[in-house]
């Protein structure tokens, strides 16, 4: 299996000292390899980004490349805040997908660039929880706070182009956005020519192995793009749930 995670790079582009960060695959903390038992450093964790920013020192430009279907909510929110606080100009490039918490990271960009064949997905936060009624109530409160924080990242980026009422509607519907739609809502600043989605196949395969619920739709969007058709523009959580049930012969 190819390792999707890439190391950060510091480049001198003309007279501008530039840091380049890559968020490919799952957004996650350090983890243990099941086969070897060794601790693996995640290059998409908030701690890794913090170290990258510290090692880079003062930079004028940060280029952020995203090809991710999402991952750990806490890591993504922390990454957004780390990047947002940095005084460098930040340009985000969506290399294929910016789904779920990866779309929140994208909002840290002063400029967000999407090739015309890429997609973004926004939705309300969700997680599994086990415990008594007090723990369940706390989990619900925590989710509300996280949703509010995520909602604010989109609103800050979009400005007047995306009223809060419309954003709430999109989040509730778990909406997949084309580049054109993201641009119309102010979540993207520039649409450029389509790019190769070769690495997107690897991202989808990784997401399928990790049972990411957005993997199925991402695969469908890739297939539609390969057929020169428009990706699915809007898809609700009910649609995804229906598909899961259909595959298990419950529907």
Characterization of the model:
There is one protein chain. The chain has 251 residues and is of the alpha/beta class. It has one domain (9-247): Alpha-Beta Complex (2-enoyl-CoA Hydratase, Chain A, domain 1). It contains nine helices and ten strands. It has helices spanning 46-56, 73-85, 101-106, 133-158, 164-172, 179-184, 198-209, 215-226, 237-247; strands spanning 9-13, 16-24, 31-32, 39-40, 61-68, 89-99, 111-115, 119-122, 175-178, 190-192. The strands form two sheets. Strands 1, 2, 5, 6, 7, 8, 9 and 10 form an eight-stranded mixed β-sheet that branches. A hairpin with a 6-residue loop joins strand 3 (31-32) and strand 4 (39-40). The model is unreliable at 233-251 (pLDDT under 50).
Whole-angstrom Rg: 18 Å
H/E order of the elements?
A: EEEEHEHEHEEHHEHEHHH
The name CATH uses for the topology is 2-enoyl-CoA Hydratase, Chain A, domain 1
**CATH architecture annotation name:** Alpha-Beta Complex
- Helix count, DSSP H or I runs of 4 or more residues: 9
Which regions contain 5 or more consecutive residues with pLDDT less than 50? 233-251
Largest sheet: 8 strands, mixed
State the domain count. 1
User: What share of residues are in beta strands?
Assistant: 15-25%
Report helical residue fraction. Answer: 40-55%
Shape field? globular
Distance between the termini: 34 Å
DSSP strand count: 10
**Mean pLDDT metric:** 82
Structural category is alpha/beta
**CATH class division:** Alpha Beta
CATH-defined superfamily: 2-enoyl-CoA Hydratase, Chain A, domain 1
């Amino acid at each position: 299996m190819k390792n999707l995670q890439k190391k950060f790079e510091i480049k001198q582009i003309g007279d501008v000292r530039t840091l380049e960060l890559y968020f490919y695959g799952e957004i996650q903390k350090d983890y243990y390899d099941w086969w070897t038992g060794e601790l693996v450093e995640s290059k998409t964790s908030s701690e890794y980004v913090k170290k990258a920013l510290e090692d880079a020192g003062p930079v004028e430009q940060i280029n952020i490349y995203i090809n991710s279907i999402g991952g750990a909510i806490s890591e993504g929110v922390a990454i957004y805040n780390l990047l947002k606080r940095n005084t460098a100009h930040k340009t985000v490039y969506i290399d294929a997908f910016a789904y779920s918490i990866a779309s929140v990271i994208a909002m840290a960009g002063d400029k967000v660039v999407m090739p015309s064949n890429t997609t973004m997905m926004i939705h309300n936060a969700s997680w599994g929880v086990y415990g008594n009624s007090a723990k369940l109530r706390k989990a619900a409160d925590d989710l509300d706070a996280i949703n509010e924080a995520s909602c604010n990242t989109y609103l800050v980026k979009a400005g007047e182009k995306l009223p809060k009422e419309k954003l709430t509607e999109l989040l509730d519907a778990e909406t997949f956005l084309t580049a054109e739609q993201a641009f119309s809502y102010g979540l993207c600043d520039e649409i450029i020519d389509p790019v190769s989605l070769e690495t997107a196949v690897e991202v989808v395969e990784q997401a399928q192995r990790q049972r990411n619920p957005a993997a199925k739709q991402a695969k469908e969007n890739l297939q539609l793009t390969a057929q020169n058709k428009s990706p699915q523009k809007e898809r609700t959580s009910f649609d995804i749930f229906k598909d899961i049930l259909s595959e298990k012969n419950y529907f």
